[in-house]
Design goal:
The structure is a single chain. With 231 residues, this protein is α+β, with helices and mostly antiparallel strands. It has one domain: SET domain (Beta-clip-like). Helix content is 23%, strand content 18%. Helix 2 packs antiparallel against helix 5. It starts with 8 loop residues before the first strand and ends with a helix. The protein binds zinc ion (2 copies).
Length: 231
């Protein structure tokens, strides 16, 4: 689900990566782009042969993932890059995507898929074609890289997220006037936040409120993390 109004993006065919999402207007660093919503599925029920080709599943934890509704435009359409201009972060049981850099009009929006090490994927079809300077040739992280990312995410989830996301200057929810405009207007979803025990097989409902912008502090930390994942 996109939170960023539709005037900012469009879905187009790419040369060799299927569909992709492109900026229709400049997007500022830190701006929240969308929420990875879909059906909560158990990994043991996922058809991984099919999934390997499309890579639409978002891993939530070791046992569950989120599978998007492919009939609707969504964050799942963002392609992978080893030098992405967007990144993901957990927010109240949701996975939100934000601009890691200032994005120029016409650029493709990309994220790193942060796939677990290649050895668990055989045969592997996740070659990366991003051709950026830091391209590793694969969408998989190294074992070290994956552990570093997991550790970072767990720490963030254990409470530091609040520090980064609910800062009054960056969190749209803190102003009711603000929250009636712009990005938050897009979300007419659930009445209350999703509890931890979201049931398997049910749709992850949109939250009532989302941060509009991610703090500079979190962006700095992610950029540092990025240099460890993509040397
Ligand atoms: Zn693979
Ligand atoms: Zn690459």
């Amino acid at each position: 689900m996109f939170l960023l109004p539709e005037v900012y993006w469009e879905i187009k065919k790419t040369k060799n990566k299927g569909r992709g999402v492109f900026a229709n207007k400049p997007i500022r660093q830190g701006v929240v782009i969308g929420d990875y919503v879909g059906k909560v599925v158990q990994l043991k029920d996922v058809d991984f042969e099919k999934e390997k080709k499309n890579l639409y599943l978002m891993y939530y934890d070791d046992e569950t993932g989120i599978y998007p509704d492919l009939k609707k435009p969504g964050i799942y359409l963002l392609n992978h890059s080893c030098s992405p201009n967007c990144w993901i972060t957990k927010f109240r049981n949701h996975t939100i995507v934000f601009a890691l850099k200032n994005i120029r009009k016409g650029s493709e929006l990309t994220i790193s898929y942060l796939l677990p090490p290649k050895m668990t994927c055989n045969p592997c079809s996740h070659n990366c074609l991003c051709k950026s300077d830091s391209c590793t040739g694969s969408m998989h992280l190294t074992e070290d890289g994956y552990n570093t990312w997991q550790k970072f995410q767990n720490e963030l989830h254990r409470g530091r997220a609040a520090k980064y996301l609910s800062d009054s200057s960056t969190y749209a929810r803190s102003s009711s006037r603000q929250s009636r405009q712009g990005i938050l207007k897009q979300n007419k979803g659930g009445k209350k936040d999703i509890p931890e025990t979201q049931g398997i097989g049910s749709e992850l409902k949109p939250l009532k409120n989302y941060p509009k912008v991610i703090s500079k502090k979190l962006i700095r930390e992610i950029k540092m993390l990025q240099t460890k994942l993509y040397r």
